[in-house]
Amino acid sequence: MPATTEAGVFDESGLLAKAREGDVAAFSELVNRYSRKIYRLAKHITQNDTDAEDVLQETFMKSFEHLGDFQGQSKFYTWIVRIAVNESLMKLRKRKSDRTVPLDEPLDTGEDTVVREIAVWDENPEQQYSREELAKILDDAVESLKPDFRTVFVLRDIEELSTEETAQALGISVPAVKSRLLRARLQLREKLTRFFRRKGDDVFAYL
Amino acid sequence: MLTCKEFLQELTDYLDSTVDVELRRKLEAHINECPNCFVILDTTQKTIKVYKGMQEKEIPAEVQVRLMKAVERKCAAGKTAAGKPSA
Predict the structure, then answer these.
(1) A104-133: buried (b, 16+ CB within 10 Å) or exposed (e) per residue?
(2) Do the chains contact at B85 and A186, CB–CB below 8 Å?
(3) Does A34 touch chain B (CB under 8 A)?
(4) Do the Cβ atoms of A84 and A38 come closer than 8 Å?
(5) Contact in structure between A159 and A81 (CB atoms under 8 Å)
(6) What is the C-alpha separation between B40 and B48, in angstroms, rounded?
(7) CA–CA distances in Å: residue A144 to residues A91, A101, A140, B57
(8) Cβ within 8 Å of residue A116, ≥6 positions away
(9) d(CA A18, CA A15)
């Protein structure tokens, strides 16, 4: 029997069963499916190429070691995301430069959510920039967020995990996810306004 | 009518469509009256959209090669070490 089956893309139970038995081809197939996503996630959270590669490898090594513990109650992807997030946060904590922004710093309730800049954007603001320029603008904006906001934003709005999955992956409450996500979205909106605002226009255009 | 502060507090749930009908009606009434909050809603929506449309970056080739080598080594070792066959 061939190592990789022709089963539907979304049916992973066969691959998982084979991978549990040490089948290289089956596990490689799972790795190939998700390695790009895991690398992107790690890169966004750690903001560092070397750390992202370490996280990528560690995530798949650990998932292989613990495949026997994976019961299939959640999606395989959600399960490895949780491993990748933990590994990424450990990297951040180890990095001295991040000592100024402790990850477990208590969060305020969002009462002081400040909106400084209110300007109308172009209809499709991203079209003003080349793909490379746009990627840099978006990456820089995410990078400037505090790690706890950044992590929630990356999981919710880039990796498209649900609020509950994000809470689970980070070991925080659902209200904490919501509060951090709101702050992250508003801060990014503020940062992007500098690039995307409609030229020579302001809010009074709507009055 | 809701205040701008109350509107902002609900913004994320509104954008994720997890508010109930009654609250949705109140939030929509607010943006109809408040141009600032309308702009904040619109630009926050665009912020999310632009990130969702981001291209998935390829992993650098050498990173992928090292990953797959590590996977092979791990699988080879795993047959004896991790061995918990699900047969």
Answers:
(1) eeeeeebeebebeebebbeeebbeeeeeee
(2) no
(3) no
(4) yes
(5) yes
(6) 12
(7) 17, 12, 6, 20
(8) A190
(9) 5
pLDDT average, residue stretch A129-135: 90
CA proximity to B47, closest of A41, A196, A13, A76 = A196
What is A13-97's CATH number? 1.10.1740.10
The distance in angstroms from the start CA to the end CA of chain A is: 69
Both tokens of B85, joined, read 């066959």
Q: Given this structure, which CATH class describes domain B4-77?
A: mainly alpha
CA distance B4 to A200: 25
Q: How confident is the model at residue A111 (pLDDT cuts 50, 70, 90)?
A: very low
ipTM of the complex: 0.83
* A chain contacts of residue B15, beta-carbon cutoff 8 Å: 185
Note whether A146 contacts B: Cβ–Cβ < 8 A: no
**A3 close to B (CB below 8 A):** no
Query: Is CATH 1.10.287.610 the right assignment for the domain spanning A125-206?
Result: no
Helix axes A174-196, A163-170, angle to 10 degrees: 110
| Cβ within 8 Å, pair A28-B40 | no
Instruction: Indicate yes or no: CB of B55 within 8 angstroms of CB of A36.
Output: no
**Cα B10–Cα B11–Cα B12 angle in degrees, nearest 5:** 95
Residue extents of the structural domains in chain B? 4-77
- Please write the tens of the pLDDT for every residue from B23-55: 999 999 999 999 999 999 999 999 999 998 887
Nearest in space to A192 (alpha carbons), one of B41, B47, B48:
B47
**pTM for the model:** 0.81
